[in-house]
Design brief:
Layout: E1 3-12, H1 19-29, E2 34-45, E3 48-58, H2 63-72, E4 77-87
Antiparallel strand pairs: 1-3, 1-4, 2-3
């Protein structure tokens, strides 16, 4: 079984959302078998920002969905989207 690199885009509920608190919330809920490789705040439009989260995980069934679901449960998260996925 190999490893997979995944880039998630985590969208906040609004422009007033504290992106540092959002990033901390994402770090707190990441499954133990998933490693965060990087985070970046990216401007989208009209003051709205997105949190880009790069992770590496085992190529195991259900782990990608479990990670996406965990991120979606963080307070003030509007949506979570897989932007890129690739085998390492």
């Amino acid at each position: 079984m190999g490893s997979v690199a995944v880039l998630f885009r985590v969208m906040p509920q609004g422009v007033e959302t504290d992106m540092n608190a959002l990033a901390k919330g994402v770090r707190d809920v990441v499954p133990t078998s998933v490693t965060i490789r990087g985070m970046q705040v990216k401007d989208i439009a009209f003051g709205l920002k997105a949190l880009l989260v790069s992770v590496v995980m085992a190529d195991a069934g259900g782990l990608l969905q479990a990670t996406e679901d965990a991120f979606a449960k963080v307070p003030h998260v509007e949506s979570v989207e897989v932007m890129e996925e690739g085998l390492l």
